[in-house]
Amino acid sequence: MAVYVISKDGERLMPTTRLGHVRHLLKEKKAHIVGRKPFTIQLDYESTAYTQDIELCVDTGAQHIGVSVKSESKEYDSIQFDLLPDEKERHDDCLKYRHTRRNRKRYRKARFDNRKRHAEVKWLAPSLANKADRHIDIIKNFVSVAPITDVYTEMGQFDIQVLAAVQEGKPIPEGLDYQYGPQYGIDTLREGVFQRDKYTCRFCGRSALNPKDRAILHVHHAYFWRGQHGDRLEELATCCEKCHTTANHQKGGKLWGFDEKLPRYVGAAFMNSVKWYIWEILKRDLPCDVHMTYGAVTKRSRLSLGLEKSHTNDAYAMGTFHQAIRADSIVLRKRRRNNRILEKFYDAKVIDRRTGKKVSGKDLGCERTKRKEPRVSEKSLRQFREQKVKRGYRSIRKQRYEIQPDDLLIYNGQTLHAKGVHSKGTRAIIRETKKSVAISQVKIFKHVAAWATA
């Protein structure tokens, strides 16, 4: 990675890749560190302010962001930023904790104007706003420490209907095809799912039309295991009552991992939603020229340069500077700063009468998927519980420990990662060896920041 330099007067100077020279400046107290992401130093002596034109090219995406910082002579940085894959679940957790906290407080009059954070441009859902803000933050961080003259962002308009038709080998939609859609002529979504699957369970083959089976059918969100809970016809499947159980919804169950080859259009839908929001914020706040490009132009440029498909190569192919000297590509993965879960539940352990093995209470539950269903039914597995060998209990965290997951520790002369702590913070768990050691035997080498090297 390059080191970004700011003059004594606060002007942005050219970044440098001479890490040895930077090390000497810091050691001789001629410069000091002012930023880590990206790594930035400020000089403590007078210097010239000669700069060249620098481009910042950003390959936008819902999960991965490619960044290339380059001048006419060389590329300074080639970085791929990976966002949190479960950002929506994080927001749902925050919502749950806020509701719990407010229920314990005095009554306060309802206020309905608290959600106008993005009203200056357009309102966005919190999950989309978070991803859009990460793009904007990354761009602003580089612009604030480097004399960047041009910013290129890939914000192509995607037609999801065309992408789906090409993927499935169907004719390209035209005219009224956009209005009819996949549910045209179907009275209800439930009826459409059953008709498409011929009233047959897609997991075991039992049919509601067969007198021997007499299956009771459910409409199942087939891709729940990867966070998709939409009501599109492609995301639903017919499932019988014997397959639609709690155990089959768990990892390793019959319903988990269904049809992994179904294409996802999350990235395309994300860019269609936030494209103009990012564009207007950058045009308003950045002191340099902002340019918009499209995926087709980026692909044509990347192929002409003979580069493989990657987010950093796409970013490099954008703009006007395509020099021969390239930087090494690195991946930075976003991580959680804090874990909001203060209370954990550890399930009871019971003996399974059928196998004689020790299993958790969840494995032998009532298996109901709706509250209106009775706990005692033919699909309940509670009847196979023989003996409880360990009670369930709750663990409440009452303090924040100094060692956090992924922190770097020095143990027996080796630099290792921490998995966590236990025994009231007196022992640490090493991720590589999966062993527990006393806190007194380790030394904290570095606390991992919000963006960690993958």
Structure notes:
By secondary structure, this protein is an alpha+beta fold. It folds into five domains: 4-43, no CATH class; 57-94 and 115-158 and 267-332, Nucleotidyltransferase, domain 5, CATH 3.30.420; 176-249, no CATH class; 343-396, no CATH class; 408-453. Helix content is 24%, strand content 25%. It is built from ten helices and 22 strands. The protein has helices at 19-27, 87-103, 126-145, 160-168, 177-180, 189-196, 246-249, 266-285, 295-304, 311-317, and strands at 4-6, 31-36, 39-43, 54-59, 64-71, 75-82, 148-154, 217-221, 236-240, 289-293, 329-334, 343-346, 349-352, 358-360, 385-390, 393-396, 408-411, 414-422, 427-430, 436-438, 443-446, 451-453. It has a seven-stranded mixed beta sheet. Strand 18 (414-422) and strand 19 (427-430) form a beta hairpin. The longest helix has 20 residues, at 126-145.
Total number of beta strands: 22
Distance between the termini: 14 Å
How would you sum up the global shape? globular
- Unreliably modeled segments: none
Number of domains: 5
How many strands, which pairing sense, and closed or not: the largest β-sheet? 7 strands, mixed
Q: Approximately what portion of the residues adopt beta-strand conformation?
A: 15-25%
Over all CA atoms, what is the radius of gyration? Answer: 28 Å
Return the CATH architecture of the largest domain. Answer: 2-Layer Sandwich
- Sheet with the most strands: spatial strand order: 10-7-4-5-6-11-22
Overall CATH class of the largest domain: Alpha Beta
Helix fraction bin: 10-25%
Structural class: alpha+beta
